[in-house]
Amino acid sequence: MKNKAENKFSLKYLTAILIAGLMIFSIIGCTTLNSPDTPFPNAYTINSGATEITFTDIPADCTIEIYNLSGELIRKIEISSGNGQYAWDLKNSSGESLRSGIYTYRIKSSQSEQNGKIVITR
User: Fold this and answer.
1) Where in the chain does DSSP place strands (E)?
2) The model's pTM
3) Same domain, 117 and 85
4) Which domain holds residue 77?
5) What is the percent of the chain where pLDDT is above 90?
6) 31 or 120: whose pLDDT is higher?
7) In what order do the strands lie in the sheet with 113-121?
8) Domain check: are 54 and 24 in the same one?
9) Residue 70 carries which DSSP code?
């Protein structure tokens, strides 16, 4: 079995390797606590016992927007007079739990805008 370099690619949260015609995917959840706008746990595993993802070091007055990979707005959260963190219940605007997948987030305030990815696995 030969592993050729041209058959391997890596992204921040997803790694794929082609071995003998079979594509193998691995989700990698790399977070650094105490870094600005870091949601944790990331990757989030459904049925792991945790019930939320917490955004840390966020502005007291901001908006958190969660999107699926198609660019559809899943949830918009308005925060005013916050304490620098927000625990998101992993539900969409209709109150339904999200499925496994990769989602993007945008945290907007009058001073800044941060973007990132959230991975939810089974």
Assistant:
1) 8-10, 14-19, 22-27, 39-40, 44-45, 53-56, 62-67, 73-79, 85-88, 101-108, 113-121
2) 0.65
3) yes
4) 31-121
5) 26
6) 120
7) 44-45, 113-121, 101-108, 62-67, 73-79
8) no
9) T
CA–CA distances in Å: residue 76 to residues 10, 66, 88, 106: 30, 6, 11, 10
Number of domains in the chain: 2
Assess whether 37 and 20 both reside in one domain: no
Residues 67 and 80 in one domain: yes
> Which one, of 44, 34, 48, 49, lies nearest residue 13 by Cα?
44
Kindly report the number of other CB atoms within 10 A of residue 83's CB atom. Answer: 8
- Mean pLDDT of all residues in 85-109: 91
Instruction: Give the confidence band of 54 by pLDDT, cuts at 50, 70, 90.
Output: confident
pLDDT of residue 76: 97
pLDDT at 77: 93
Same-domain status, 61 and 96: yes
| Same-domain status, 60 and 82 | yes
- 9 lies in the same domain as 48: no
